[in-house]
Amino acid sequence: MKIEESKTLFEKSREYFPGGVNSPVRAFGSVGGVPVFVKRASGSHIFDEDGNEYIDYVNSWGPSILGHACGPVVEAVREACLDGLSFGAPTRKELVLGTLIRECMPSMEMMRMVSSGTEAVMSAIRAARGYTGRDKIVKFIGCYHGHSDGLLVKAGSGALTESAPDSAGVPASYTQHTLLARYNDEESVKKLFSEFPDDIGALVVEPVAANMGLVPPKPGFLEFLRGITAKYGAVLIFDEVITGFRMGLGGAQGYYGVTPDMTALGKIAGGGMPMGVYGGRKEIMEVVSPLGKVYQAGTLSGNPIATTAGIATIRTLMEQPGIYSSLEEKAGKLVKTLKETLPETWVNQAGSLFSVFFTKDQVVDFDTALASDTVKYGTYFHYLLEHGIYTAPSQFEILFLSAAHTDEDIEKTCSIIKDAAGIIS
Length: 425
Fold this sequence. Notes:
The protein has helices at 4-13, 71-81, 92-104, 117-132, 172-175, 186-195, 221-232, 251-256, 282-285, 304-319, 322-341, 366-370, 374-386, 407-420; strands at 38-42, 45-48, 53-56, 110-114, 136-141, 153-156, 159-165, 178-182, 200-205, 235-239, 262-265, 276-280, 346-350, 353-357, 389-390. By secondary structure, it is of the alpha/beta class. It has a 7-stranded mixed beta sheet, with helices on both faces. A 4-stranded mixed beta sheet has the order 1-2-3-15. The chain has a two-stranded antiparallel sheet with strand order 6-7. The radius of gyration is 21 Å and the shape is globular.
């Protein structure tokens, strides 16, 4: 693979952007090497500035479920652009998209459109606090909910009930009401609710953890969260930025049959364009301005181009529900190859989402995910990259398929994975 142009662009970009990128994982910091500068994409493939072609398993971190530059979506966006890029005023398209979302996820009785998943989760938590009149929230170690100040926290001194900022620039006072539990660990959740029975306003969770690598919920875990939040009067928020419209039209809540009080969606709701949506039970959302006293606003919320892309994407998924079983079947072939050929690895799958961990032990939470050999993952990543397979440049991200991935794509990827096994031992 030639990398001269990407290398030149990366060096120049470092003069303008921190680390040369506009989102940290793109810098290849955890795997080393020069990041790929993408020039264009089509279907299941991306093409870089050096002319290299790759089968893409990142898919813009999930939203390109129909494949890159999907014809109906692109055509709808092209037509919408001719009418204007942004109005800062209500549009019919907002209503159309909202109707489609509620049809797919009935738990979102009322919703508000925003511009990113980070903004959606941040706003959902604010609404939950306003509704309950309680300040404290529970989140899980290793679950990422965007970069808002109150959610960038990790356990302090090993105590679940203490939080410390996980980023410079975040005052400790911003995270003092954020309580940390362990994903898939019911006792850690019970302890927090026992200690703060009248103070917890919300519990936010990725129903399928997807930012420590993929870690599915243990049987009964989501049901447990539904029960304990209801018992203590806290709002259960599902962060479905990754799983929404990915695990099915009903997201993870439909896949597992567990209904949250509130849901946060990300860029897949906008067909890959900047978009976020948060919503839930009507009585909760009615605390949001202008109806209630919880303030939230945004000039680009419900942007007409993003809503157009979202409408086209969701309508296609509704018209072709077989896409989901096909994606899961293709993911299963890749997972089978990974399990059979890579030594001392553990592979998790939920629907069409999957990831490989370079550890021989079962991965069920953040601690077991951290046991992975990141050096081996880096070796594996670069072998695939050099052979035309673009995967997540981090051990702790997950892989995404699209409807555009062909059987030939899958077979070629399986073959290269098998070859990679010889250099990872």
